[in-house]
# Entry
Amino acid sequence: MSLDEWKKTAEIASPIITILAALIAFRAWRRELHGRSRFDVARKLLQAGMTLRDQVQTARSPLMGSEEYQSRPRQEVETQDRAQRNDFAYAYFKRMEKVYEELRALRLAALEATVFWYVEIPKLVQPLSSKVFELDAAANVYFVEPSPPPNREERIRFQRIMFAGGIDDVFAQDLNKGVHELEAFLRRWIGKG
# Structure
């Protein structure tokens, strides 16, 4: 081939090679962007699950400081026993407000994650949501005094749900199991850590 023929071939081939290189680069960029999006969403969802778990554990702490109920509106006629019970209930429900804030954050992250993992995410988030609702229901029955009031065994069951307690804390174990299942599913996109 002569030099002129090589030049003509190069002139014809260079736009084709440029287009092919651009397509390959675009596909690689798109794949990287999609992978990065999955990573960010997975990290955000796992962080929301862990934060919810931690906030639930904080709410379940049996230790309560007076600063937690100082802002409670007082009733004109309130016995000391009734005031202590109302203080405790007020502080506990204030803690639950923070739990519900974290539950909303988890649900928002889960909604975003369903774009990538449509079927799996609702199943993985449900156990954590259920634990929050179980905790809230136990607190409502415990503090609101339904009619008829719960018997001794029911009250003990509600207390075990509401307050963290030792190695046989089934509620905490279930909550941790839910976070671990979420983490196990998302580990593929987040990395081994």
Observations:
- The radius of gyration is 28 Å.
- The longest helix spans residues 3-59.
- The chain is about 75% helix and 0% strand.
- The chain has one domain: 3-190.
